[in-house]
Amino acid sequence: MPLDTGDTAFIIICTALVMLMTPGVGLFYGGMVRSKNVISMIAMAFISFAIVSIQWVTVGYTLSFGSDISGFIGGLDYLCLTGVGLDGDGIPDMLFMVFQLVFAGITLAILTSGVAGRIKLSSFMVFGVIWTTIVYDPLAHWAWGGGWAGELGALDFAGGTVVHISSGFGALALALVIGNRSGFGKYSMEAENITMTLLGGALLWFGWFGFNAGSALAADGLAVNALVVTNISAAAGALTWMAASWIKGKPSSLGLISGAVAGLVAITPASGFVGPMSAIVIGGFAGILCYSALLFRVRKGLDESLDAWAVHGMGGFWGAIATGIFASAAVGGVDGLIYGNTHQFLVQLIDASAAMIYAFVMTYVLATVIDKVMGLRVTDEEEYVGLDISQHGESTTA
C-alpha cells in the first residue's frame, strides 16, 4: 500500500497532540503538590519525555516492535532505527515509530505520581531508563508487537494495559518502596494550585483525541469513532466523580477533572471497539470506581497522593475488562460479553491481570534494587526545603 498523504498528515498532528499530554501531566501533578515541589513535578515530566526519546530510538522501539522472541519481547531488528525509513504501509515507518515514542514518554511521566516530593533526580533518571526497557517495552510488545497477548486475541486499541495499567500499578509499587512523605497524614498536603491542575487536565483531554483517534493509524471512520467515544467517556467520568464527591461535601473542580481523566483512561483500550452509548457506561462507571479507589487509598494511609494508581491503574484495568464486555463487531469487528462472546471477556481479564502483576512486581523489584544501590529518596533536609531547591536550585517564590 502506497503512502497516503492525508493519513500521514493526520498522524503527524496526532503525534504532536500526544506529546503535549506529557507537559500536561506535569501541570496536572504540579498543581497538586506543595509550592516547594511544583518545578520538580513539571520537570520530571519533561525529563521523562527526554529520557524515553533517546531510549526509544536506540533500543525501545526494536524491543517493542522487533521480530517476536517467545511472545515476550522484540528482537534487535530495528536497533538504533536500522531499517526504519520514510516509506511504509499508508504512513511512513518513521512516523509510526515516533507516534509510539510519545506513548512511551507519557507513561513514564504518569508514573512520577508515586514519588512526588521525595525522589532523588539522579535515581529517577536511572529508574526511568531501566523501567521503560524492562516494563513498558515488553508490555508494548505483548499487545502490539506480535507478543502473546495480541496472539491470544486481547484488545487494547490505544494503551489501556500498555500505558495505564503499567504506569498506575508501577506508581503504586514505587510509593510502597519509597515510603510516605514526611508529615503525611499529620500536616495538610492539599493541592496548592488547582488552577494549574485544571489547565493540565484540559491539555490531557485535548491531547487524548490524538492519543485514541490516532491509534486508528488512518484518517478514517474508526478514528472518528475513537474521538467521539473518547469525549463521551471523559464527560461521563467527570459527572459521576463530581456527583459521588458531592454526596460527601462540595462538588470540587479537582474531582471533576480527575473524573474526566478517569473516563479518558477507561475508554482508551475500548475506543476502537465500542460505540457512544457504551462509552457513557464505561466512563460513568470509571468515575465512580476511581473515586472509590482514591478513598480506599486514603483510608489505608498510602502516599500515592497524585493517584496514578486510582485513576490510571484502576481505570485502565476497568477499561481493559470493559472492552471485553462492550466490544461490538459493528465498530471494531469483535463482539464482547454482552453480545455473547464470553471468550473475549476472559481474554481481556487474563491480559489485564498479567499486565497488572508484571508491572507491579517488576517495578517493585527495580525500585528496591535502585534504592539499595544508590538510594531513591532525598535526605530529610532536602525534602524539608523542597525538591525545587534541593534538586534543581530553583524556586517558584520570589
Q: What is the H/E order?
A: HHEEHHHHHHHHHHHHH
- Described by the principal axes of the CA atoms, the overall outline is globular
Count of the separate structural domains: 1
Spatial ordering of strands, largest sheet: 1-2
- Helical content stands at 55-70%
Task: Give the DSSP E fraction (strand runs of 2 or more residues).
Answer: under 5%
Q: Quickly give the structural class.
A: mainly alpha
What's the average pLDDT?
96
Instruction: Please give the CATH architecture.
Output: Orthogonal Bundle
* CATH class value: Mainly Alpha
The CATH superfamily is Ammonium transporter AmtB like domains
Main sheet specs: 2 strands, antiparallel
Number of helices: 15
Question: Can you lay out the helices and strands and say which pair or pack?
Answer:
Blueprint: H1 5-30, H2 38-65, E1 68-69, E2 73-74, H3 93-111, H4 121-144, H5 148-152, H6 160-178, H7 194-213, H8 221-248, H9 253-267, H10 276-299, H11 308-326, H12 329-332, H13 342-373, H14 380-385, H15 387-392
Antiparallel strand pairs: 1-2
